[in-house]
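From the shared-data thread, chain only:
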Amino acid sequence: MKLYYVPFLVLPLALAACTDTVMNSDSASTYGEISEENLTTVNVEDTSYLMAAAPEYNIGQPFNIDSVQYNPIENLSYNETGTAGIIPDDMNGSKTKDGEFYNSDQLVGASKVLPLPSIVRVTNLENGNTVVLRVNNRGPFVNTRILDVSTAAAKKLSMTSPTKVQVQIMAEESTAVKNATLGTATTPTSLEEAPMEQATMANNGPYTVQVAAFYSEDNAKTLAQRISNMGNVQIINEGGMFKVRVLGLDAPGAKNTIDTLRSTEGMAPGLLKDGKWVNANSI
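Structure, as tokens:
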């Protein structure tokens, strides 16, 4: 995988307990349930943040919860079954363990042992619903649950209370987001080493390809410069992130751009038509 982007992946992960502060027993008792009314108001169309570079990559030291020790490690074969809870909305804005800020409208979650950030696939074993989310925080700080998920993720899973789930790490995507965060992804030193086909440019076309999104403006500028040959590349400051987009493409140009980013960069870009998110495979 390459770069340090946050493509719209199709993927996307995770928050749970708070960040630099550990929840007390009172908050832990209500941490994990949410009203069904709240689950109907979530808009999660833009999932580009899932693969974004985080402010820091965090594994952390072993810790205990009620005499049970947990050892965070890099485990790309992680596949566990257990109970998941729901992060309360009043955690919004709290800082996560990898330096982000919790947003209940994002597909994120919290794990006791996975690296932060990581990408996982969560399956509700009661109804078969599945969601890909970004794990970006430690928690839940109780021994009865292996994961806590945001309101948005709970909606996708049709969860309204603690639920039995399967949690599987997505190794390739987790490695990519780690490399993006650490800035260690291997990238060609010149376009000749890994040439990108020039995208068809239609400056007034209806399509926009979102290549990636970053918390760091410098990272966004680096990527934008590197793919500047792909068309009208712009950096959009939106929602607290710097989004690298190729604007004004016609359908063939958008398809060519997406195919090139997938094959050459291993990225999963997003697609907008007339400013609205559409399936990147629809063209």
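The chain has two domains: 25-180, 207-278.
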